[in-house]
Amino acid sequence: xxxxxxxxxxxxxxxxxxxxxxxxxxxxxxxxxxxxxxxxxxxxxxxxxxxxxxxxxxxxxxxxxxxxxxxxxxxxxxxxxxxxxxxxxxxxxxxxxxxxxxxxxxxxxxxxxxxxxxxxxxxxxxxxxxxxxxxxxxxxxxxxxxxxxxxxxxxxxxxxxxxxxxxxxxxxxxxxxxxxxxxxxxxxxxxxxxxxxxxxxxxxxxxxxxxxxxxxxxxxxxxxx
Amino acid sequence: xxxxxxxxxxxxxxxxxxxxxxxxxxxxxxxxxxxxxxxxxxxxxxxxxxxxxxxxxxxxxxxxxxxxxxxxxxxxxxxxxxxxxxxxxxxxxxxxxxxxxxxxxxxxxxxxxxxxxxxxxxxxxxxxxxxxxxxxxxxxxxxxxxxxxxxxxxxxxxxxxxxxxxxxxxxxxxxxxxxxxxxxxxxxxxxxxxxxxxxxxxxxxxxxxxxxxxxxxxxxxxxxxxxxxxxxxxxxxxxxxxxxxxxxxxxxxxxxxxxxxxxxxxxxxxxxxxxxxxxxxxxxxxxxxxxxxxxxxxxxxxxxxxxxxxxxxxxxxxxxxxxxxxxxxxxxxxxxxxxxxxxxxxxxxxxxxxxxxxxxxxxxxxxxxxxxxxxxxxxxxxxxxxxxxxxxxxxxxxxxxxxxxxxxxxxxxxxxxxxxxxxxxxxxxxxxxxxxxxxxxxxxxxxxxxxxxxxxxxxxxxxxxxxxxxxxxxxxxxxxxxxxxxxxxxxxxxxxxxxxxxxxxxxxxxxxxxxxxxxxxxxxxxxxxxxxxxxxxxxxxxxxxxxxxxxxxxxxxxxxxxxxxxxxxxxxxxxxxxxxxxxxxxxxxxxxxxxxxxxxxxxxxxxxxxxxxxxxxxxxxxxxxxxxxxxxxxxxxxxxxxxxxxxxxxxxxxxxxxxxxxxxxxxxxxxxxxxxxxxxxxxxxxxxxxxxxxxxxxxxxxxxxxxxxxxxxxxxxxxxxxxxxxxxxxxxxxxxxxxxxxxxx
Lengths: 225, 745
Prior knowledge:
The structure holds two protein chains of two kinds. By secondary structure, chain A is an alpha/beta fold. Chain A contains five helices and eleven strands, in the order E-H-E-E-H-E-H-E-E-E-E-H-E-E-E-H. The longest helix of chain A has 15 residues, at 210-224. By secondary structure, chain B is α+β, with helices and mostly antiparallel strands. Chain B has 26 helices and 28 strands.
């Protein structure tokens, strides 16, 4: 299995995401923002960072990159895409996911070990979890405050498309304490916290993050069958 | 007025230049005229004035700093020593590590966010320039009183600036210090340390070799920021039509720096540069003169080729601009096309601005007119050397010993511990550290509030490094010679407590005005102490930084020599945390406590300084480091005792673990009783947690190293109990964590 990891100018967690892909047992393939070539990968991760320095709006410029044109087309055909942090922001700007990530309620960058509750284990990236499972993974952002209009929120909630919620004090003011969402088909997932930083106990607060990466491998194997 | 060319300068020997406004003394100006055999042009004066400034030339400190060379210990570890952008150390397995700290104190007072941000940016470029990938940053910070109104302006801005820049570069922030003291009001200290890693063969140097090789400026375009004194030349003497002076504090763009890092690393990986230098203080003046001075020939630069953000800049301003995120490379012509292709890939602006020559002069032209014609060495390396007057400051004769009430009853112990851990210098710093990314790159093994920051270097072999920065300014105030020794020993102890072996040091020496003989004496004593302790411990000094003039009127800051120690750990999986996470462990204190409270936080909380720094016991500390390394496998947790004494150490351990402890200090053996046992800051002590079955093995190792080992308690429960005083962890945590949010929102 080959999982692509996209590097935009200003991407920071691309090597971390590649490491997580390899820990999960897949081959990590580096993809460059300026090319529309997906190099025959089976899934794509849009990693965290400050692509284009967060200029204009977080993720807004990256959403127009050549690689995104290919990703958008592929995603519409069920290709698995995970956007982490800035990657989630890119997915929102590319309209693969609804809503927007705005400035944290307290206006500060926040780096913390965050507890999340998994709410949907039917997506390609979360099928290895139990519903209601609590996990601890790092989160680190200044613009992680998930916002959308009431109709979109109702749609997300009624269709079970919230994949994870913050547990305890809402760290950034996100509506309904939403940490991550999926599209209708369950192949595109956006998550504000960083599962790639929680793949072993040596460098992370837990190994919980690895399940996102093993989940997509299971989906693909199941798909192949 | 017309361009002040070399020929114009030759024909107008009596033309008055504002050398004093640029900070040059009359004799220095005469020396420049002597070197050139004529008056300097405005551009030349701009270059000399900045390069001969205290900041760039180390003119007041040079005569002292040479001790680092004279007393250097024998070391195979040092691959590149003092003088380059940063020293480079061999850590084994073919890896080389470069690390350095720099101050950005004055800009951070004027404009906290940008001052701190560009401080991070500058030190990261120094590390990158050596050929290394930057892998972590640390920030030793000092502020005025925590509750002073100006601290509320400066601290949040500095923290946001460090976070805003460092987070955006993808560099984990793994540690540092935050200390408050009244003397830093008006003179906050913002020191930034960066560490980078490379293979031995990838080391790059700031040298311009090979006639015909090209000088390429790449990175951000040049703007009018950070010109400072040089704008006097442009706006007041040479071009009166100019509007106002430009902002003297540089403005950072971390995105430009991140792209520059990746672009440079790709260029290095293809071995496309002969030499490289970053543009920091004094901008193009510094980079071109240093590259040429360290090389074998001269250099021609066509200044009009520099790409500008602001087309109205004068040649003097272009030379002086401290616009951030720029680098200067020396490239063989055959490699230019590939170099440019990589720059285009990263959307980095790159321009050939000149070439290396076989001559001996640095020639700079502007639209064909010669405006600089100097021997580069006279600009970059042969600046003035001053032997400033020194005298032992009078305050040292009127120090008073510490007088404190004894604390013995459970009620007073509880109240005292809660008071101590809520004090701003001891309290939880996560309000600050939560604003820094500590996870990025995925190699952070230990980060604040651990004793040292630890980074994995190799995922297959598990090789890693640890870094700790320390300074105890109050001890340096009481005894500058021994104060810095104690800082270095503490740093080594921190490294060893985490499980790494100390290997090399860097420093950032922050002092008041060198024109004050008392300050100069404390500086000289500090350098003497640091050189001596490095020799005694066998640790090479890889480089350093001096920041003078941290002084408002007659009030200088406490002498604050920050020492950074780099250690190596062969297998990061064996590291030791301060957190034990289990009950039933036995707690021991390694090392003895005495009753000297001088310079301690407890004395400070009672408005007292004391009269004598502790004696640095190098022999004991050396054996303690050995013991810590030998016994790593026996420790479930370990934590150095420093600021706040045992009380702070044990509080931090139980709170990080979220497991309580039952402590019984053997007060009868401690001079000064329970009060000293809890609050004295006697150096050379560590608290360790071990399983019962490992106690005998630890005792044996401690005996072999003649390190006293005292049982002080056991872990478990949800209380911190000390000699009959019971403090619920919830109450302890509240006292510890509420201080910063209350102060800073």
